[in-house]
Amino acid sequence: MEVYTNENDQVDAVKRFFANNGVALVIGLVIGVGGVFGWNYWQSHKSNVLQESAAKYESVSTQLHTGSAQGIEAAKKFAAETDDVYSAMMGLELAQVSVDKGDLASADKALTDALAKAKTVDMQDVINLRLARVQLAQGNADAALASIAKIQGKSWQAAAQDVRGDALLHKGDKSGAKAAYTQGLESEGSQSLRGLLTLKLNNVSNS
């Protein structure tokens, strides 16, 4: 089912970034806001916890993509019991598996749960964009528009306006859709996304 498009390379890049740098990112944050108070304890405990979470994530992700019921249950358990960026990443993967099966309700739940675990604006943007696509695929244009409105990052605006235009068109608002596609073209976006936006803009302009 073609629910997710265009932003996949960016999503994969975000996931790789956190998989490779998640521990260092959190450690850097704590240094900046907490100084050195309790640093030795935090470093020995929290760093180990995140490293264990990262290792568990990789293992469970491999199980999930075998397509087995056990793998799906293991992924759901990990996402529910983990309270860090890896939980949010697992939610994204669970949602993708559900979309591939045509189970949009499960994808919606996985993304909504993941959003509550997301620790950075960029990760929240990824999840809100994918959630909006799922909501629109379910025919819920208003929910999709609400999710799109929460996206903050400049690098996601072209994809966000693409979905926003689709949602407005679903509601019969051709002028709003045209404005959204135009705004998307004026934002940063991949060549393929710009081509898609141009096609959609031409179609709505000529309809």
- Broad shape: elongated
Total number of beta strands: 0
Strand count, sense and barrel status of the largest sheet are:
none
The share of residues in extended strands comes to under 5%
Q: In which range does the helix fraction lie?
A: over 70%
* Mean model confidence by pLDDT: 82
Computed Rg: 19 Å
Distance between the termini: 26 Å
With helices defined by DSSP (H or I, 4 residues minimum), what is the helix count? 10
Uncertain segments:
21-42
Look at the helices and sheets and give the structural class. Answer: mainly alpha
The H-and-E topology, N to C, reads as HHHHHHHHHH
Describe it for me?
By secondary structure, this protein is an all-alpha fold. The chain is 78% helix and 0% strand. It has ten helices and no strands. It has helices at residues 8-34, 39-64, 69-81, 85-100, 104-117, 121-137, 141-148, 157-170, 174-185, 191-205. The protein is elongated and about 55 Å long. The two termini are 26 Å apart. The relative contact order is 0.10.
Keywords:
single chain; 207 residues; mainly alpha
Write the layout of secondary structure elements.
Blueprint: H1 8-34, H2 39-64, H3 69-81, H4 85-100, H5 104-117, H6 121-137, H7 141-148, H8 157-170, H9 174-185, H10 191-205
Helix pairs in contact: 1-2, 2-3, 2-4, 3-4, 4-5, 4-6, 5-6, 6-7, 6-8, 7-8, 8-9, 8-10, 9-10
